[in-house]
Model the fold of this input.
Amino acid sequence: MDVGASPQGGVVYVCGEESPSQVKLRIDRLGQQKKPVTLQMLPETDVDAIIASVEKLDLSLLIVDSVQTLYTSELPGLSGSISQIRECTARLIGFAKSKNVPVMLVGHVTKDGEMAGPKVLEHMVDVVLELTGDRYYDLRLLRTQKNRFGASDEVGVFKMVESGMEEVKNPSELFLAERESGAVGSAIAVVMEGTRPVLVEVQALVVESELPIPRRVSQGVDVRRVQILLGVLSKYTKLNLGTKDVFVKIAGGLTVKEPAVDLAVCLAVASSVSGKPLPNTVAAVGEVGLLGEIRSVSWSEKREKEAKKLGYTLFYSRSSHKKVSEIVKNL
Done:
């Protein structure tokens, strides 16, 4: 609804998933009915009927929700099949190019987070945007997976509120707003979301295990990466982790996949084991290798600048320490 509220011309919203009355209820709840835009709803799933209905209109945007519901009677098979999705998309692309009207296709995703339907669908369109979020958090990330007209590494950060999504201009402040000063088992990492550096809190809890095989549980970071880092700590820092349960979490619901979070995970675990907190002004960035070395990561200067801007004047990285054991021994 927010996207359809900005163009100056007419906007047609093709309702393949919901009825127009259901969509209107959502518009009323979000308060978008006051926006100066001509929004028309078209409850249709036949792609040929859709094109015939809109080709004579003065449009600035056509929104189709969703592409998996479309079909054409000229092809066999049900809507959502590979042939139907491919053909319907091709016809909408032809309409968009001939009329010079942008078309936005809303698509389903699978349980694995991949776009449902044929992979060729992603190759046919000009831009692929992915909106992700955790159902238990109000944070939403809009990532660019493909962009023929510009950069594909930009990320939009939004917060879901009652009236829709609001832009988060400083995500770092959002993630660190509830961090406790002097907390044991807490470390600050600077990760990159697109080209934007974001400070996040890495939390670790290490306790004696009551099980024959100690547990390694993580949320927001790959558990296999955590297991590797625990092995490195056991080998090169002499921390006794073999009989302990280790829990690691990225506070705030963010999922971090880049290796730059390695050093912060190691420091959070070491802090929990020693019972001593890290200094409040420390931020850490670096990949940790199997030999216990701290390796450089991309955008290091940009990350350090963002950390110091938010008051984290001590920056642990490859430039300050060569080995993770050099930092851990001081805890």
User: Anything to note?
Assistant: The mean pLDDT is 90. The CA atoms of residues 133 and 140 lie 5 Å apart. The chain has three domains: 3-125, 126-169, 174-328.
